């Protein structure tokens, strides 16, 4: 079942947890590239780690749009994929996924070809292990999708899977001085912990 706009009408923490286990899908050419979401981070306008805390701008506009709007930004490593939540200026970062291929080896080969590491094929379990790898493996480009809504080319499926255990920790990669509270806003499906973003953190 494809998620509709009503699904995203949640506060940012609830949405971050609810997205775990859902499958992000990108239809391109004759392929449907899929990744099960295994790790998310919540960002609220009320705290300085969020981009929206810096105020409205054209680059950050999607965070201030209706819930379910795609917000993408670019870092040195590549693009990152976020979804706006119910709160004005709040959004969820899709931090990691694991490719969901339904034994479709042609699609797997395609994803491995577009996301090589030093010219070599990546392990299938780590193709989307990290926010920029996720975007690269599913071919989700900032120029095409920032400020857009989900549609027939990019959508999220509910496959009926609900994580039995959700690990909670502080977020990773926040600049010093912008996350002093070490807020417990990072969520990981424990079943897939070893494929999530690596980093030193405390689990609550």
UniProtKB/TrEMBL annotation:
One example GO MF annotation: DNA binding
GO biological process per UniProt: base-excision repair
Database matches in Pfam families: Pur_DNA_glyco
TM stretches of this protein: none
InterPro entries on file: Formyl_transferase-like_C_sf, MPG, MPG_sf
DNA repair listed as a keyword: yes
Group of enzyme by EC: hydrolase
Superkingdom of origin organism: Bacteria
EC code(s) of this entry: 3.2.2.-
Keywords carried by this UniProt record: DNA damage, DNA repair, Glycosidase, Hydrolase
Family: Belongs to the DNA glycosylase MPG family.
Official protein name in the record: Putative 3-methyladenine DNA glycosylase
